[in-house]
Design a protein that fits this description.
Structural class: alpha+beta
Shape: globular
Distance between the termini: 53 Å
Strand content: 5-15%
Radius of gyration: 21 Å
CATH architecture of the largest domain: Orthogonal Bundle
Largest sheet: 4 strands, mixed
Helix content: 40-55%
């Protein structure tokens, strides 16, 4: 009999080792580790994160896993949750544009937590586990044919986190199967917190990372999980996605193409769905002239983008979240300040009357010719008071593999994030961390990475 979908994925996880990875997959993995560590520094101070770290401080244990930048050790699932939240808080982490989700916020915290609390894990094993975890997230998500409803960073990400943690723990095929089946019982992540602008939105990948670690450890102790966690009558696809999926996408070129090479790195710390309009604004800001002469800015995007980030800009209980998920705000930022960086999402900056005034002139509409799930395409039209009109079409935003950030830009982002955080991380430590990541396949123990990031 032909293996079912779940068996194909489990065979892929169990049967792949470092020698099966191509050079580009390994290169991308290293860049994304550096990028993910970089955004932890300012994320450490983001709203909600200091409070979570202080809670972890009250739950410390002698053995466990490290909360990055703090030196605190807590049970591995809690370390994974906290590190993921800091990594994701500023919405500056990687994305899979085709699925509008993030990946490393699930797999990297899960892998580090498992690696610290088990047998020695080397750099090759870490890279392999991360590449496979990302592959699972991407493959499961790319098969979905419905527009965004669940936060798929969390739902699909839970499977990737479990796969990564299971691989780090050296589990065999049967235990990996159980880990994925167990994590399905914890899979969650709704968009309600996103549309309400609540801080819990940034924690949902952390819950998935934590669930992945718990599931791998339970599986290692013999706990059994659902076998048909994707395709059973109450499996993920029928229950969460109304069976609107293409199973061929899950296994297409499996073992030959690793989806980590398809990930985008973010140039701006806001929802990826705002990036094409930011790019358009950056291109038009000089041509369109002074902002006080702008009468209106019209933006046309897909229905999903319009729903998630296209509403008129309003400031609620968590201004940072409101700004991160707003095309009107980020567009106004690009026109007035000429960049969109971390400082632009501090509350004092968000309350700038000039930004508010321009954001009120931004109107977002649905272009029905753009597929509903497409987050790449955006059209912008700037109309000035004198009647002149300036237009820009962005088909692929910066940071996408088809429009990538250079190695120099990636390193600049890494250093800017550390500098902006105000955390003391001296040049020697930065060089040691970068060198360790660049030569990760030669690192004998992943705990050395954590040591540098422990603070």
């Amino acid at each position: 009999m032909e293996p079912n979908l779940e068996e194909r994925l489990v065979d892929h996880i169990a049967g792949t080792d470092f020698s099966d990875l191509d050079e580009e997959a390994v290169r991308c993995c290293k860049k994304l580790i550096m990028d993910s560590f970089g955004v932890v520094f300012p994320g450490n101070h983001a709203p909600g994160c200091p409070e979570i770290v202080e809670l972890m401080r009250s739950w410390q244990c002698a053995q466990g896993a490290t909360v990055l930048l703090s030196g605190i050790r807590v049970p591995p699932p809690l370390a994974a949750m906290t590190n993921s939240t800091m990594m994701h808080a500023l919405d500056f982490d990687d994305t899979l544009d085709a699925s509008a989700l993030h990946t490393f916020v699930n797999v990297l915290p899960a892998s580090l937590a498992a690696a610290e609390n088990g047998q020695k894990v080397n750099g090759k094993e870490l890279i392999t586990a991360l590449v496979l975890g990302v592959d699972i997230i991407c493959r499961i998500s790319l098969a979905i044919e419905r527009p965004l409803s669940w936060i798929r960073t969390a739902t699909c990400g839970s499977f990737g986190a479990a796969a990564t943690a299971a691989k780090i723990l050296g589990l065999g095929k049967e235990a990996i199967f159980n880990a994925l089946g167990i994590v399905y019982s914890q899979t969650a992540g709704n968009a309600q917190g996103l549309i309400e602008g609540r801080l819990v939105k940034r924690m949902q990948p952390g819950f998935a990372a934590s669930a992945g670690v718990i599931s791998a450890y339970l599986a290692s102790r013999g706990i059994t999980g659902s076998r048909h966690f994707l395709t059973g009558p109450y499996g993920f696809y029928p229950l969460y996605e109304h069976s609107n999926y293409n199973p061929l996408r899950v296994t297409e070129a499996i073992g030959e193409h690793f989806a980590i090479v398809d990930l985008s790195m973010k140039p701006y710390p806001s929802c990826r769905m705002t990036h094409s309009t930011i790019d358009a604004a950056m291109k038009l800001k000089d041509e369109a002239g002074p902002v006080d002469g702008i009468q209106r800015i019209d933006v046309a995007v897909s229905s999903m983008v319009a729903e998630m980030v296209g509403k008129p800009f309003q400031i609620g209980a968590d201004p940072q979240v409101d700004a991160q998920f707003s095309i009107p705000y980020t567009t106004a930022c690009a026109f007035i300040r000429g960049e969109v960086f971390l400082k632009d999402f501090e509350t004092a900056e968000i309350l700038d009357p000039a930004l508010k005034a321009l954001a009120e002139k931004v109107r977002v509409s649905i272009n029905t010719h753009i597929p509903a799930k497409d987050i790449l395409k955006a059209e912008m039209k700037v109309t000035r008071s004198d009647g002149r009109v300036f237009t820009c079409l962005v088909s692929v935003p910066s940071g996408n593999p088809l429009n990538p950030l250079s190695d120099e830009q990636c390193r600049k982002k890494f250093n800017k994030c550390i500098d902006y955080s105000g955390i003391s991380f001296k040049e020697k430590a930065r060089k040691e961390l970068i060198s360790m990541i660049e030569d990760l396949e030669m690192v004998p123990n992943v705990r050395d990475l954590v040591r540098v990031m422990a603070g």
